[in-house]
User: What shape does this take?
Amino acid sequence: MDQTVLSSQVYPYTIQTQSECIIVNQMDGSSSGDGSKPVKRRRKRRSKGSSSATNEDDVRAMERMFRKRKLTDEQVIMLEYSFENEHKLESGRKEKIAGELGLDPRQVAVWFQNRRARWKNKKLEEEYAKLKSQHDSDVLGQCQLESQVIKLTEQLSEAQNEIRKLSERLVVQETSTNSSSSSFSVEANDAPTDFEFSPMDTINDNIPLYMLDNNYYLQNMEYWDGLYVQF
DNA sequence: TTGTGTTTTACGACCTCC
DNA sequence: GGAGGTCGTAAAACACAA
Assistant: This one.
């Protein structure tokens, strides 16, 4: 499409100087189709730093803004096609694309800048989604492991209770059958400390009693947590 | 129709590289 | 120092719900 045609036919256009932006709805300032006065809006642009605008700068800015318009679908399609091939433009390539599309090289450069920014944002969003998915998966795995730990802890507790009951039953049996004939006595929660038995002594003549590291052991049993526990 | 949110075009400021 | 990049933002254009 011809640049002149575009510039003169696409409305509204804007004229922008260093310090302000004037938006004109009709190029010649005449009234719009509904009979209302041409709308002119002035908006102050934010000023950054200590830039001092010259008249030349203003003129160039006005010239650029004079051409401000939305690109046509065909132009956007061609620019997208170029962007697929290369995200950054060589100077010559920029001029070529601008010539082919009837655009200012500056417009092509700006379009590529903005397109790169959009592409970068999209990449970031994709990366975020990927990381979030991974994180959610990790959290789920952690929950499963924690519930497994709880289940195993309960099983361990039940097993310990079972062991305690069995050992208590055994101790009661031993004490009831041997209470009058032996000086050996065993009580739960009371570690034996002063036994006189020598190794290989027995309880009731059939349960061997061993001594190791100043601890007394029944066969396959160990004094543990105040009780004799069978292993 | 209008208010509101999103996208697009363009810019200024600043940074990096040659 | 200039060319060309990113970043943040303005403002028009657009989409859409109420």
